[in-house]
Write a structure and sequence with these properties.
Elements (H helix, E strand, L loop, with lengths): L19 H30 L1 H20 L7 E8 L4 E7 L12 E2 L9 E11 L19 H23 L1
Antiparallel strand pairs: 1-2, 1-4, 3-4
């Protein structure tokens, strides 16, 4: 059973004043995105200039996509979150239920589905609940005991008769 204590920061549905930290973090996210986009563009230009690299790259993308499709999490492993974004929109998002906050593991921002700002830092959040009910634990039934075979019964009878004789002998002496 999972024992994650889900955290909140602020209250997304209440008024929220952006802090200096929020403004600084949003600026950092935009700079990171700009630099990463430039590096990826440069790399892809090099890859697509060579037909062999292009074919290998596309094959690798197919493998990654196939892996991602096979690794879908069950609804009871997904936590839903209400988040307030830097752009001030309040949206619902989801993360794996093992994460105590929606901002962990590189997911501290997202593209706003309402205005399209990308990235938009998550500045306040609260858990809503799991996306699905966990499966109920099955009642465990004891394994069915098989009937002993005739040979086993005869062996057991012989043991008990021997023990009975021994006890009678000890009692009489």
């Amino acid at each position: 059973m999972r024992s994650v204590e889900y955290k909140s920061r602020g209250v997304p549905l209440e008024d929220y004043e952006l802090t200096r930290r929020d403004h600084r973090w949003q600026k950092d996210l935009e700079n990171i995105r700009r630099v990463a986009h430039a590096q990826v563009s440069k790399h892809l230009d090099e890859v697509y200039a060579d037909p062999e690299l292009t074919a290998a790259h596309q094959e690798q993308l197919r493998k990654v996509w196939k892996f991602m499709e096979s690794a879908k999490a069950a609804p009871h492993d997904i936590m839903r979150w209400r988040v307030r974004l830097y752009c001030e929109h309040i949206v619902t998002t989801s993360r794996h239920a093992e994460n105590a906050e929606p901002t962990l593991h590189g997911s501290s921002s997202m593209k706003c589905p309402e205005c399209g700002k990308d990235p938009s830092a998550i500045v306040a959040f609260e858990p809503i609940g799991l996306a699905g009910e966990p499966p109920r634990a099955r009642a465990t039934t004891p394994p069915a005991q098989r009937k002993p075979s005739r040979v086993e019964l005869e062996r057991r009878i012989a043991q008990l008769e021997e023990e009975n004789r021994r006890l009678r002998t000890e009692k009489s002496t």
